[in-house]
Predict the structure.
Amino acid sequence: MLYLDSRRDPVSDSDAPRASSLLEGSAPDSDVDRVYAEIFDAVMDRRLLPGAKLTESTLCSIFGCSRATVRGALAQLAYDKLVVQLPNRGAFVWRPDAKETKDVFEARRALECLLIEQLLGMPDLPQRLEPLRAMVAQERQAFEQGDRVSWLRLSNAFHVKMAALGGNDVLTEMMHGLCSRTTLIIALYDTPSSSTCSYIEHEQILDLLASGNAEGAKGAMCHHLQDCEQRVSESTTTVPADPWAAFSIKP
């Protein structure tokens, strides 16, 4: 049987924050929220890959819930642009095309430069950045230890947490959504040894922010994202024929 529930999934042992936990008020309040969070995290951890068909009966069995609950979770994921629901075919994990990839990275660059300008107007910025420095140190450690899931989670969390420092909940929610879609783009086009985010580049961005270098910080961020976009645009990697094979299989 294919297991997706994090209570039975070895990646749940990771100390890195789950992607579904990065927004305020993200704690599941209902079965729909719980199933949404589990599928969302499986996608963000690259255990459930672009193009995977999300069969209602399979998900009901995995989560021990009703079809109404699964349908509610899939509807939320579709609203967030992480799932595509096709008439008479079912639900599939979003599989971005070339234009969508370009649009997402363009939006990321614009939003992250806006957030950098916002942060540079805050008092005591170097002190406010200390939690992010600790996160980057965790990211480095996860990479050096070969903990791929933690590394992916921390790479994603860095950008969302940096947005949250500005205190604008709408901008933070937008960044969370764009980071999620970027993760799916990387899962489709990039290789496992590459990453949307590099802890070395994250350290550089933090140093430039702490020194008040606006143009330097924005330039480093744009380079960071452009480098990732270039890698995926040149990649010849293809998704395995059976995306569900990313899950642990037990008799």
Observations:
- The radius of gyration is 18 Å.
- Residues 132 and 161 are 7 Å apart (CA to CA).
- Residues 5-12, 239-251 have pLDDT under 50 and may be disordered.
